[in-house]
Amino acid sequence: MAVNSVRELARRLGLSHTTVSDALRDSPRVKKATKEQVLKAAREFGYHYNPLAGALMSQMRRGSVETFRGDIAVVDLEGAKMRPEVFARFHKEVLQGAERAARKMGFKVEFFALGSEGISVDRLNSILISRGIRGILILPAGSSPDLSVLQWDHFSGVYTDYIIEHPAIDSVCSNHYRSMFLVMNRLARMGYRRPGLVMHKAHDERIMHRWEAAFRIYHEYHTGFTNIAPLMLEELNEADFKRWFHDTKPDVVLCHRNRVLRWMLELGAKVPETHGFCCLNVKMSPVPVAGLDLLPSMIGERAMEHLNSLIYTNRCGIPEMASTTTIPSVWVDGPTLRQVG
Amino acid sequence: MAVNSVRELARRLGLSHTTVSDALRDSPRVKKATKEQVLKAAREFGYHYNPLAGALMSQMRRGSVETFRGDIAVVDLEGAKMRPEVFARFHKEVLQGAERAARKMGFKVEFFALGSEGISVDRLNSILISRGIRGILILPAGSSPDLSVLQWDHFSGVYTDYIIEHPAIDSVCSNHYRSMFLVMNRLARMGYRRPGLVMHKAHDERIMHRWEAAFRIYHEYHTGFTNIAPLMLEELNEADFKRWFHDTKPDVVLCHRNRVLRWMLELGAKVPETHGFCCLNVKMSPVPVAGLDLLPSMIGERAMEHLNSLIYTNRCGIPEMASTTTIPSVWVDGPTLRQVG
DNA sequence: GCGCTACTATCTGACAGTAAGATAAACTGA
DNA sequence: TCAGTTTATCTTACTGTCAGATAGTAGCGC
Question: Which of A109, A194, A199, B181 could hold A251 in an S-S bridge, CB 3.0 to 4.6 Å?
Answer without folding.
Answer: A194
